[in-house]
């Protein structure tokens, strides 16, 4: 009897979820939930998650990833509150990147600085970023991509890095027209992809340590890690001319990943923390899922992905993400800082999850606003 009641309860929950996912998305509702999430995150900006004793530094990659989404929301918002908040962060930190000169994580905040420069035209916003990248151009790392070699992370030898640093190089190229930025980015991105991309699965390993590892007799492809790459591809392609060979290189990877990502969406609308292992990782995870919704919606908006094929996945994914936003605006089920599939909880979040959610919302809003 108890098992029957459990089955009926689960069936009712699934039916309710399916009904909600079938409902048309309203652009006004997308903006409303984005505002709620952005406001909650700003209010709780210095709170700590991922079992850390101290808040993340404002220039840390965690917050840099938040800013990439927050700057997209700022462009949609009805006032300058969010631009002013981001400007204050830049001003307080003298527009510097974070402490490691070569490390991709510490470049992430540069994406936000360049977007602010585009709005305000103040050279000081991008001067330190340009100077640091000039140094890297003329003193490139000679390390190899193998995980435990000296100074290995001075290059992009883990897939998260492809979200963090390459878009900044692409932005600088677009901003200045100087091809040296593009050439460096292309060479390093290709090296990383040749190293980390599984051509059979069309997914990226997190790093070399996972090449031969299996979990439940299956390859390990971390959801958020591939989300970092998928979101990074979008942010790079936004900076490039669609008729160039460089754009087409990224587009080719993007299309392969999009097809695979579509196949791997769970019936509930999220993506499993280990992408090939839905049965073993049933817990929702919203940071990776947000990046996938972001990237798929962008593809439809840019007439790259077939709307009839991909729109249901975006719609189902967005409804699922929103279902994990609390009434006061906290996005739950964000996996803590890590490098592989793990655990997530309804009452735990992280700033990078908020950034991914806001990025997703920016493209979902465009998608449904254009349909009205």
TrEMBL record:
Transmembrane segments: none annotated. GO terms for biological process: carbohydrate metabolic process. Pfam families: Glyco_hydro_88. InterPro entries: 6-hairpin_glycosidase_sf, 6hp_glycosidase-like_sf, Glyco_hydro_88, PolySaccharide_Degr_Enz. GO terms for molecular function: hydrolase activity. Keywords: Hydrolase, Signal. Residues 1-22 form the signal peptide. This is Glycosyl hydrolase family 88. It comes from Pseudalgibacter alginicilyticus. The lineage of its organism: Bacteria, Pseudomonadati, Bacteroidota, Flavobacteriia, Flavobacteriales.
């Amino acid at each position: 009897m108890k098992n029957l009641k459990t089955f009926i309860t689960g069936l009712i929950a699934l039916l309710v979820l399916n009904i909600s996912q079938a409902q048309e998305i309203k652009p006004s509702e997308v903006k409303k939930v984005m505002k709620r999430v952005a406001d909650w995150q700003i209010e709780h900006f210095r709170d700590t998650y991922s079992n850390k004793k101290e808040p993340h530094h404002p220039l840390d990659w965690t917050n840099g990833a938040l800013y990439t989404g927050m700057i997209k929301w700022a462009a949609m918002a009805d006032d300058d509150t969010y631009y002013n908040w981001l400007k204050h962060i830049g001003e307080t930190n003298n527009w510097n990147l974070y402490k490691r000169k070569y490390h991709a994580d510490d470049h992430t905040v540069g994406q936000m600085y360049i977007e602010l420069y585009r709005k305000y035209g103040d050279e000081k916003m991008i001067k330190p970023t340009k100077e640091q990248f000039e140094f890297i151009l003329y003193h490139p790392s000679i390390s190899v991509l193998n995980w435990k070699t000296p100074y290995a992370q001075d290059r992009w030898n883990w897939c998260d890095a492809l979200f963090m640093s390459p878009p900044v190089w692409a932005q600088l190229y677009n901003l200045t027209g100087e091809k040296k930025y593009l050439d460096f980015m292309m060479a390093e991105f290709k090296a990383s992809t040749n190293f980390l991309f599984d051509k059979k699965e069309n997914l990226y390993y997190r790093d070399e340590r996972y090449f031969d590892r299996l979990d439940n007799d299956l390859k390990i492809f971390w959801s958020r890690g591939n989300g970092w790459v998928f979101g990074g591809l979008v942010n790079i392609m936004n900076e490039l001319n669609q008729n160039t060979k460089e754009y087409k290189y990224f587009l080719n990877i993007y299309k392969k990943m999009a097809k695979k990502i579509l196949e791997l969406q769970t019936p509930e609308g999220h993506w499993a923390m280990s992408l090939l292992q839905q049965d073993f990782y049933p817990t929702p995870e919203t940071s990776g899922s947000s990046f996938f919704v972001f990237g798929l919606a962008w593809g439809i908006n840019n007439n790259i992905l077939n709307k009839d094929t991909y729109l249901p996945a975006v719609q189902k994914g967005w409804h699922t993400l929103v279902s994990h936003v609390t009434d006061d605006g906290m996005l739950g089920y964000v996996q803590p800082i890590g490098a592989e599939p793990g655990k997530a909880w309804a009452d735990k979040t992280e700033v990078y999850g908020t950034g991914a959610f806001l990025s997703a919302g920016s493209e979902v809003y465009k998608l449904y606003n254009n349909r009205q």
